[in-house]
Amino acid sequence: MSGANSYDVAIVGGGHNGLAAACYLAEAGKRVVVIEAREKIGGMASSGYLIPEAPRHLINPCALDLMSLRVHPMMPQELQLERHGFRQVEMSPGYVYVHPDGNSLVFWREPEKTAAEIRRFSSRDAEEFLALMKLVDAFIDMAIPMMRVDPAQRNLGAKWQALKAVLRNRHLKPEIMALIGSPAYTSIMERFEHPVVQSALCCLLGAAGPIANDATGIYFALLGFIHRFGLGRAVGGTQALSDALAARLRELGGEILVSAPVAEIIAGDGRAKGVRLKDGRVLSAKAVVASIHPKMALEMVTPGALDRRTLTRVALAPANGHGASPLKVDVALSSQVNYRRIEALRADGLSLRKSVLLIGTSDAVLDNFRCAARGEVSKLPYMWITVPTAVDPGQAPEGQDVAYLYPVATPVEPREGWDAIRDRVGQTVIDQAAEYMLGLKEFEIGRRVEAAPDLEKRLNVHRGCVVHVDTSTTRSAMMRPAAGLGGDSLPVAGLFLGGAGIHPGGGVNGLPGRIAASRVKRFLAR
Question: Which part of the chain is the Amine oxidase domain (predicted)?
């Protein structure tokens, strides 16, 4: 087929990774189309007016904080997204832990300032923290060069950078290997003695997964990232990033189709040939990039084109395999909330309105994951809470707020089913958050509650897993999403994965799309 429905590359999924891949390919002169099932682009990097009772309160239903994009800033720079309206502001401080007794511990950009916070609770813990940061910084120096490149390539430059970091820190190597190979919880508890310090670190690292599992020491990278790179927010909501990508793509001559669900990724004679939409249209393409969940992507491929072993391997790649998933509760408010009770206990007069508060204890983190694995909701609060409108007031009417409540570990499959408990659990989350966020209940206009099955249905993501495939050392590089599927090509020539299910994984940074685009360019040049 040629003509209007013929492309060099068809990209299935209009999330930020799919849009990034499209931009890189269009920049290289390829005729590209992005095909999005929903009525708007963005996927998990989106925003919208999603609470009917509050039509002027902007909701960020998934991603909000731009940590990963600050660690890996290449994509917005290379694609000139600032010219198309993308702008981010840094939050300072970004994360603040709050204990149930009201004591708070700030994670500042500078490790020394964070250590000074810790010293208020334990001088020994402060010194231990600085020693830990030396290990974490060394690990990041080794890891970042390889995170940014395609694991299927030789990457001699990146390997040389990583090797130099290894050699520079060779005296720390045994400690680093012990740290990343151990449960994060074990390392926290053996190093730190004060319950506030222990809980602060458990609540931070728990966002990456169940910290009591082996080899979760890699989660300490979060600690290094926030100190080295800080946190940012997109002005105008996360949708602003996706909209900037779409504007850049159109500038480059690329096309975007919305409200266009794909029925089939067409394959024959061992090659990808295009896509068939559910409305019957067929778009031919020399290559297809699936920037959606790998399981859903491969199940779209023409029956018989992929062998059973491949399909089974990707279908069983762990997605919230520990049984836990975040819950999301957004609340539109008629006035502004405050944290005066917590701020009053500090001697420095610091305002916490622009920060993310980490709520819980070390016991609560463990209990939330254990309960979720049993299909239960823990009674102990463990959540991250923030007010996006404190950083960007334009996301609500003047003098009003939006609250973003993020319980980290709730059951993917509760025993009673989410339909039976969604409203009750949503109210519990608001009740718990209101102990810290004053005015949350009094000023409520409307709310939105989204659990794992809701996210799965809305965005076609397996088990509602926001990173597509669980983050672990055994699901990285060429092993992500599974053995034989993390490299330069799939068993169907011209078919590529390009979402969070490939290296380097989840987070808003566009690297999976960038890597996929490079793979497609090499394929088309053969």
Answer: 18-402
Cβ distance 70 to 232 under 8 Å?
yes
Q: What is the pLDDT of residues 129-152, one digit of tens each?
A: 999 999 999 999 999 999 999 999
> Which residues contact residue 163 at a Cβ distance below 8 angstroms, ignoring those fewer than 6 apart?
none
Which neighbouring-strand residues pair with 287? 9
Q: Is 288 helix (H, G, I), strand (E, B) or coil?
A: strand
pLDDT at 156 over 60: yes
* Per-residue model confidence as pLDDT tens digits over 367-380: 999 999 999 999 99
Task: Identify the CA nearest to 360 among candidates 183, 129, 200, 186.
Answer: 200
423 token code pair: 């409203």
Where would I find the beta strands (DSSP E) of 47-87?
none
| Rounded Cα–Cα distance for residues 67 and 88 (Å) | 11
- The mean pLDDT value for 438-460 works out to 98
Q: How far is CA 505 from the centre of its chain?
A: 8
Q: Residue 16: is its pLDDT beyond 90?
A: yes
Dump pLDDT digits (tens) for 234-286.
Answer: 999 999 999 999 999 999 999 999 999 999 999 999 999 999 999 999 999 99
Q: How far apart are CA 1 and CA 89, in angstroms?
A: 47
Task: Evaluate if pTM is beyond 0.90.
Answer: yes
Cβ neighbors of 118 (< 8 A, separation 6 or more) are 105, 125, 126, 129, 194, 197
The pair of structure tokens assigned to 373 is 């694995």
Which CA distances in Å does 2 have to 7, 280, 283, 440, 526?
Answer: 8, 17, 9, 57, 20
* Residue 325 CB partners (closer than 8 Å, separation 6+): 372, 409, 410, 411, 412, 451, 452, 455, 463, 464, 465, 466
Which residues are CB-contacts of 497 (< 8 A; sequence separation ≥ 6)? 289, 290, 291, 294, 297, 481, 485, 490, 512, 516
Reduced to 3 states (helix: H, G, I; strand: E, B; else coil), residue 441 is coil
d(CA 141, CA 163): 10
Per-residue confidence (pLDDT) for residue 4, from 0 to 100: 77
DSSP bridge pairs for 104: 98
3-state secondary structure of 426: helix
Local confidence band at 221 (pLDDT 50, 70, 90 cut-offs): very high
User: What does the DSSP assignment read for 448-495?
Assistant: EEE-HHHHHHHHT-GGG-TTSS---GGGSGGGSSSTTSSSS--SSBTE
**pLDDT at residue 1 is higher than 60:** no
Contacts of 328 (CB under 8 A, 6+ apart): 61, 62, 404, 405, 406, 448, 449, 450, 451, 455
